[in-house]
Specification:
Blueprint (H helix, E strand, L loop, with lengths): L1 H25 L4 E5 L2 E5 L1 H49 L3 H11 L6 H15 L2 H11 L4 H14 L3 H14 L4 H14 L2 H12 L6 H17 L4 H10 L2 H4 L2 H13 L3 H14 L3 H6 L8 H10 L8 H13 L3 H14 L3 H13 L3 H15 L9 H4 L9 E4 L5 E4 L4
Antiparallel strand pairs: 1-2, 3-4
Helix pairs in contact: 2-3, 2-4, 3-4, 4-5, 5-6, 6-7, 6-8, 7-8, 8-9, 9-10, 10-13, 13-14, 16-17, 17-18, 17-19, 18-19, 19-20
Length: 420
């Protein structure tokens, strides 16, 4: 295709040249010039050729006059590139003194001033020289204000000066749109300070930048929304955040847990129970069922009945056994709690199950077994081998491995040997 286009263009040029030459051959034109007693008569073709030659000669003269200055600027730019490259490499290698020297020289080149000063500020901050970093950022702000603002906010967050970073970014956001890096810092600063409104507002603006992959943005979004739900000041604010979330967001496990715990803490346990129960009907989750026992002391009997109804469909869930044990502990049904927790330990002997068993044994007045269970909780948390239970408890609590039935997604029975 390109070859045919080139041939066509050559044909057009040839036709135009032939037509022009034929026209000039018939009438080459005539040009008369008169100036200060001088009079020149020539053809139009010769005049055009002479004008082109004169323009070419003048261009060469001008280039020759300005060549030394351009050569010096090119040399300075080349040296600046070399220095900024050396400075960046030295900063990454941790040789901050050498990096500062190279970057300071590179900043003398106008076109490299902003990146050199920003790199100088980062190197000074890594070296612990906050004053030099601030001075470099002040100088960089003259040519690259958005980048200097984003880097200054990042430095404040790294120093845990969260309120200062939040105030700085909110003030700048009110004056002009923030770059993506500054918006992300604003989200982080607002989340640390518990300013959910600012965090969600910055998150909405940051979403339009598309500066993160889908997975990374989903993680940031989930973390920000979970923080906003956890720190909601009241039921109205909590419900407003939850209602403003999309359907897909309200189905995320961590957000359901955050909403349920906060709404239960604000005196609405039924709403919390409903969200977790609905989520478990959609998809069973060990984390969700564990959170079902962490909704406070309200409606213990109703939650216990609901949790017991899940045993038929989830008999191998260690999280369900832990929830049942905790709910029984909160209801002071110590013997029943010990039975559920023993079954859970036969499935997966993790630290929360041992801790809940210690609470149950303490409620029964068996201080020795309770102490052993608490010790096992610590060992399990550290990944160490747990101690066996005393002989007096083995009749009531069997934590030996047992074979449990489990079915695949196609309903095919599978035999699973649970962990000890």
């Amino acid at each position: 295709m390109r070859s045919w286009t080139a041939v066509l263009l050559l044909l057009i040029v040839a036709v135009a040249a032939a037509w022009g030459w034929h026209a000039l051959a018939l009438d080459p034109g005539e040009v008369h010039l008169r100036f200060a007693g001088w009079r020149i008569e020539t053809s139009f073709v010769f005049c055009v050729i002479a004008a082109l030659l004169l323009w070419a000669i003048l261009s060469l003269v001008v280039r020759g006059l300005f060549w030394p200055g351009r050569a010096l600027r090119r040399r300075a730019l080349r040296r600046g590139h070399e220095r900024i490259a050396d400075g960046l490499v030295a900063a990454i290698e941790g040789r901050h003194a050498q990096a500062a020297k190279s970057l300071e020289r590179a900043a003398h080149v106008q076109t490299l001033q902003a990146p050199a000063l920003l790199a100088r500020a980062r190197s000074a901050q890594a070296q612990g020289d906050a004053a030099e970093a601030s001075a470099a950022l002040d100088a960089a702000a003259e040519t690259a204000p958005a980048a200097a603002l984003a880097l200054r906010a990042r430095f404040l967050l790294d120093q845990n000066r969260n309120i200062e970073a939040l105030d700085l970014l909110k003030t700048e956001m009110a004056a002009a749109p923030l770059p993506p890096a500054a918006l992300r810092s604003l989200i982080e600063a607002a989340s640390r300070c518990g300013d959910s409104a600012a965090a969600l507002s910055a998150l909405a603006a940051f979403a339009k930048s598309h500066s993160l992959s889908d997975e990374a943005f989903t993680e940031l979004e989930t973390k920000t929304l979970a923080g906003a739900l956890t720190h909601a000041p009241g039921a109205d604010a909590l419900n407003a955040i939850w209602a403003g979330a999309s359907r897909a967001q309200r189905q995320r496990e961590s957000l359901v847990i955050a909403y349920a715990k906060r709404t239960a803490a604000l005196g609405q346990p039924l709403a919390a129970m409903g969200e977790i129960e609905s989520a478990l009907r959609r998809d069973w989750s060990e984390n969700l069922v564990r959170a079902y026992a962490e909704l406070g002391p309200s409606d213990l009997a109703a939650r216990l009945r609901q949790a017991e109804s899940w045993i038929a469909t989830q008999p191998n869930s260690a999280g369900l056994m832990l929830t049942l044990g905790r709910l029984c502990n909160q209801s002071e049904l110590w013997g029943k709690a010990r039975e559920y927790l023993g079954r859970g330990l036969a499935i997966a002997a993790d630290a929360p199950l041992w801790e809940a068993l210690g609470d149950a044994c303490a409620g029964l007045g068996d201080a020795d077994v309770a102490q052993r269970a608490y010790h096992n909780a610590l060992r399990a948390e550290r990944g160490e081998k747990t101690e066996s239970l005393p002989d007096t408890l083995r009749g009531a609590l069997d934590t030996r491995a047992s074979v449990l039935e489990q079915r695949s997604e196609h309903g095919v029975p599978q035999l699973v040997l649970p962990r000890q």
